Automatic annotation (TrEMBL):
One record GO biological process: folic acid biosynthetic process
Gene Ontology MF terms: 2-amino-4-hydroxy-6-hydroxymethyldihydropteridine diphosphokinase activity; ATP binding; kinase activity
Name the record gives this protein: 2-amino-4-hydroxy-6-hydroxymethyldihydropteridine pyrophosphokinase
Enzyme Commission number(s) from the entry: 2.7.6.3
Source organism per UniProt: Flexistipes sinusarabici
PANTHER family from the UniProt entry: 2-AMINO-4-HYDROXY-6-HYDROXYMETHYLDIHYDROPTERIDINE PYROPHOSPHOKINASE
PROSITE patterns found in the cross-reference section: HPPK (PS00794)
Keyword set includes Transit peptide: no
UniProt cross-references to InterPro entries, sorted A to Z: Hppk, Hppk_sf
Keywords: ATP-binding, Folate biosynthesis, Kinase, Nucleotide-binding, Transferase
Pathway(s) of this molecule: Cofactor biosynthesis; tetrahydrofolate biosynthesis; 2-amino-4-hydroxy-6-hydroxymethyl-7,8-dihydropteridine diphosphate from 7,8-dihydroneopterin triphosphate: step 4/4
Protein family according to the UniProt entry: Belongs to the HPPK family.
Primary role: Catalyzes the transfer of pyrophosphate from adenosine triphosphate (ATP) to 6-hydroxymethyl-7,8-dihydropterin, an enzymatic step in folate biosynthesis pathway.
Residue ranges of every copy of the 7,8-dihydro-6-hydroxymethylpterin-pyrophosphokinase domain listed in the record: 86-97
Length: 164
């Protein structure tokens, strides 16, 4: 059994429902252990896009990392994800943040997610559900990652997500 962490985000209406629907789809193949609260953050591009709702979930699964990546892409496709341009608005985005603390560097999959330590909208919800986590490659704790971020004020916890 593998422990995995996924980051989910949505910035098109209805954001919370999009996140809930994605969790429901993911739960068909993953055993969902915990889900962070919902965090609101601005678009990475700081353009006119709507703000994002973000969560991190912890799950267990018997599938391998490549199968999980394929499964996440399938859920995005089922939910009709349509991104008009790179980092454009999207109803759902599902990223594998960590898969059993494995280090994988391939063309299609980079684990742990290479941008994870630098994104407040991943670090903060991750810290909420797994405060003792230590990155397997750089050996930095998730709490230290948070301390190193300089944009703490740009993210706000909105509350719990109803997904059952």
């Amino acid at each position: 059994m593998n422990t995995v962490f996924l980051g989910l985000g949505s910035n098109t209406y209805p954001k919370a429902k999009n996140l809930s629907s994605a969790i429901a789809g993911l739960s068909s193949l993953l055993n969902i252990i915990s889900v962070s609260g919902v965090y609101k953050s601005r678009s990475l591009l700081l353009d006119a896009q709507p703000d994002y709702f973000n969560i991190v979930l912890k799950a267990s699964t018997f599938i391998n990392p490549c199968q999980l990546l394929s499964f996440c892409k399938t859920i995005e496709k089922i939910m009709h994800r349509d991104t008009p341009y790179k980092w454009g608005p999207r109803n759902i985005d599902i990223d594998i943040i960590d898969f059993g603390k494995r280090i994988i560097k391939s063309k299609s999959l980079f684990l742990p997610h290479k941008e994870f330590p630098y994104r407040n909208f991943v670090v903060l919800p991750f810290m909420e559900i797994e405060p003792e986590y230590v990155h397997p490659e750089n050996h930095i704790s998730v709490e230290k990652m948070y301390d190193l971020l300089d944009n703490h004020s740009e993210i706000h916890r909105l509350g719990e997500l109803k997904w059952l």
